[in-house]
Design goal:
The chain has 16 helices and 4 strands. It is an all-alpha fold. It has a domain of 220 residues: Farnesyl Diphosphate Synthase (Orthogonal Bundle), CATH 1.10.600.10. The strands form 2 sheets. Strands 1-2 form a two-stranded antiparallel sheet. Strands 3-4 form a two-stranded antiparallel ribbon.
């Protein structure tokens, strides 16, 4: 899942080494770790709010412990993205899913740390492959230490995640291994592009299902598993996580070309300038190939020199106003609706309401 620096989701730069401190009036952790807007109703619940935020603080503390190293370079590079903050969506989903069963089990926190470590590791690799200069408002690791160090740091964090998941047993290890496989395949398929006989849109949807949906799905799956929920509940969270993860990435695609920066924190046109083939551009290319003159004009701008801010702004404006971009929103909305529908078998609860609200927030872009 692409991570943008969202000012509503940031952490204050305080240490969690002394343990979490909960502000019971707001449901926030005194260190600055706050619930995303899509999950705001959790904080309003007198029981679930404190339980979730306290658990998130434990995750944050153990996350830092997991990446700590006696080697000064490894310690500095591994802490780089953790110190920069993040939404912690995956750990939050793990914790919420555990509340569909027995959330008190200590394995829940460890599983939440595993999924966030795995996510962090992929970001180090993604930034190298995308030549991204910034991540979460800070210079990327490869900009600071070079490509080789950044890649090896990602590998090291993957190794730390593997150590932790091995302690959780064979089933968790299998989930992690299959997710890791999909993450790698998604990146590989994105890198080589669609085959000649493959529809570019279908190819892209499969890529983001692997690169984003798989780990979000694993997060909910592990939470339900270690909350000792029934297999039917585990299956629900697996399906929900995959769909909401795809919806999130699709919405992020549209945000890049519609200038929605205030809530997302993402500078408009980033993907355009980097040549990332996101859904709005793929749909506009399809329209151009079908003879849409307005789409041809947009593609001419997109494929031109976007190095200047002026040319990028012109391209963003052209893409954002083309009807295909609204079609992309509709695709994202459908995936979010499908995620909500996947929750139908669950009994009514504050957890189900929160998961529903998150799926809806993904496409209204409160997150």
């Amino acid at each position: 899942m692409t991570e943008s620096a969202n000012p509503g989701w940031t952490r204050a730069g305080h240490s969690l080494s002394d343990g979490p401190e909960l502000d019971t009036a707001t449901g926030a952790i005194a260190t600055g770790l706050r619930l995303p807007p899509g999950f705001a109703l959790i904080a309003e619940d007198p029981h679930l709010g404190p339980a979730v935020t306290t658990c998130l603080a434990k995750v944050e503390k153990q996350l830092r412990e997991a990446i700590a190293s006696s080697d000064p370079l490894a310690d500095a590079t591994s802490r780089h993205l953790v110190e920069a903050g993040g939404k912690r969506i995956r750990p939050l989903l793990t914790i919420l899913a555990s509340h569909l069963g027995d959330a008190s089990r200590p394995e829940v926190v460890q599983a939440a740390v595993v999924v966030e470590l795995t996510h962090l590791a992929t970001l180090y690799h993604d930034d190298v492959m995308d030549s991204a200069p910034y991540r979460r408002g800070a210079p990327t690791a490869h900009e600071v230490w070079g490509n080789s160090v950044a890649i090896l740091t990602g590998d090291l964090i993957f190794a730390r995640a593997s150590i932790l998941v091995s302690e959780l047993g064979g089933r968790a290890l299998g989930i992690q291994a299959r997710t890791f496989e999909r993450l790698c395949l998604g990146q590989l398929h994105e890198t080589v592009g669609p085959r000649e006989d493959e529809d570019p849109v279908e190819h892209y949807l499969s890529v983001i299902a692997d690169k984003t949906g798989s780990l979000v799905a694993a997060s909910g799956q592990l939470g339900a598993l270690f909350g000792q929920a029934s297999q039917s509940v585990i299956d629900v969270m697996l399906s929900y996580g995959e769909k909401v993860g795809v919806a999130f990435q699709l919405a992020d695609d549209v945000i890049d070309v519609t200038g929605v920066k205030v809530t997302s924190g993402k500078s408009p046109g980033t993907d355009l300038r980097e040549g990332v083939p996101t859904l709005p551009i793929l749909l506009i290319r399809q329209a151009a190939a079908a003879g849409d003159a307005s789409a041809v004009a947009v593609i001419d701008l997109v494929d031109g020199d976007l190095s200047s801010d002026e040319s990028l702004a012109t391209a963003v404006a052209a893409v954002s106003t083309h009807p295909a971009t609204q079609d992309a929103w509709k695709v994202a909305q459908q995936w979010a609706d499908d995620a909500v529908a996947a929750l139908e078998p669950l009994p009514e609860s504050i957890v189900k309401q929160a998961l529903t609200a998150f799926a809806q927030a993904v496409v209204t872009r409160d997150v």
